[in-house]
Amino acid sequence: MRTLIILFGPPGSGKGLLGDKLVEQGQMLKVATGDILRNAVKQQTPLGIKIARSVKSGILVDDDIVNPIVKKALDEASGNIILDGYPRRLSQLITLKGWCQQAFEPLCVYMTTPINDILSRISQRRICELCGTTHFAAAGCCPKCGGRSVVREDDALITQRLNDYLKTVDPLIDIIDQWCRIIPVNGMDITNGVQNVLACLESF
Ligand SMILES: [Zn+2]
Known about the structure:
The longest helix is centred in the middle third of the chain and has 14 residues, at 63-76. The N and C termini lie close together (9 Å). It is globular, with a radius of gyration of 16 Å. 49% of the residues lie in helices and 19% in strands. It is of the alpha/beta class. The chain has one domain (2-113, 171-202): Rossmann fold, CATH 3.40.50.300. It binds zinc ion (ZN). Residues 128, 130-131, 133, 142, 144-145, 147 line the site of zinc ion.
């Protein structure tokens, strides 16, 4: 059976970076709902126009918008999948459990990155105005295309987003814990985290 890795944790905890490093190891596809939604806003697609305000302020987008995006990705992928940014609600978790039956073996990576480290990471995070690549402020401009570095609009609201996450999203981990194996990863040590996840995949 194929594996579905759920990257679970607060905004800015290093989920995206961990996911990218796992993809580099091969045979995995990363589906980052935040990137897909932000891209739709940037391209001003009908969907993007509808969700622009929510995405820019870091508010959770409705299930009827985000569920089909995830379902389509699961249907189209032929190998293992990494989910970044989903599920974020109990209703999404229940939906995902249904989709996984007989198709995917779930595994959850739970980010344990300390809040203080998250705040300092976010203050250094920039996004390329042209291509959307995430990078450090120290780079000066986009390392991929040379585009201008800007602060992600939802990063400017990080304190509020962390509070929202701790109140409404984080409690889901107790239910995930009853469903599948959980690997704790500190986002300040991604190298070690990648090794732990790969070791766990091999033992599946
Ligand atoms: Zn760029």
